Amino acid sequence: MKYHTAYTKNVAQATGIFTSLLQRSPAVPGFGLIDGRPGLGKTFATIKLLNSVDNGVYIRAVALDSAATFLDRLLKELSVRERPRAKMARFEKVLEALYDQPRVLFIDEADYYMDKPELLETLRDIHDMTGIAIILVGMDKIARKISKLPQLDSRISQRYEFQPADLEDMQIMVKELFEHGITVGDSLLRKVINETHGNYRLGAIALENIERKAKVDGIKHIDVAEYGTDHAVL
User: Which stretch is the leader sequence (predicted)?
Assistant: First the structure.
């Protein structure tokens, strides 16, 4: 299988809200939220969006982050060598860098920040004072947590919840990712969906197994009959 992110419906929707954030009026707040259950391709979609712009900055949140460590990590990503010890001085350096060169900030695994008020207020201040777009990416419970934080929730102007893969998504993945012109019948794709419950991560593993069998057997089209009715796809 080719190593890139297929343009599934989730990716299309994430691209749409991202474009809307970049093209929004200055009067519209610039926070975006992408959420959904694990394994639905949020991180892959985020990286695809990050690579689509020249000014993107990616931070993968970690449990040990504080406002101070976040500012330090952000300064590093902004290529700012001077990193003062005082939090306020770090914050001012971040603002200075973003005033000089506005960026788009992607924060993956943002769930880790939901119980860290100082860090969230720091993010809100960065957004309010620079006007940059900030995309929060998290698990399916993050939206509920944000709803309890009105000052943050009111600043989210674009949001999308990733959905499990359906037959059309699987067809897109086969078309865009399979090599050597190998095709897969819909019955086998439905078997993949049923066994993986629409989980993209597991679905990709299943599709790779199917493609490998087709290559070994020397066939260009594979369906349930060729794969084996008693064989699991994982």
Answer: none
- 8 A C-beta contact, residue 1 and residue 177: yes
Q: How far apart are CA 22 and CA 36, in angstroms?
A: 22
What is the sign of the dihedral through the CA atoms of 87, 92, 98 and 101? negative
Strand partners, 230: none
pLDDT tens digits for range 90-136: 999 999 999 999 999 999 999 999 999 999 999 999 999 999 999 99
* Ramachandran class of 180: left when φ > 0, alpha when ψ lies in -120 to 50, beta otherwise: left
Task: Give the CA radius of gyration of the chain.
Answer: 21
For residue 9, name the pLDDT band (cuts at 50, 70, 90): very high
Residue 26 neighbours by CB distance under 10 Å: 6
- Which is it for strands 134-138 and 31-35: parallel, antiparallel or unpaired? parallel
Residue 229 has pLDDT above 90, yes or no: no
DSSP three-state, residue 153: helix
In whole angstroms, what is the distance from residue 215 CA to residue 232 CA? 18
Cα angle value 134/38/194 (rounded, 5°): 135
Element (H, E) at 148: none
Q: What is the pLDDT of residue 92?
A: 98
Domains defined along the chain, listed by start: 9-161 (3.40.50.300), 167-227 (no CATH)
Q: How far apart are CA 12 and CA 31, in angstroms?
A: 19
Say how far apart CA 55 and CA 67 lie, in whole Å.
Answer: 23
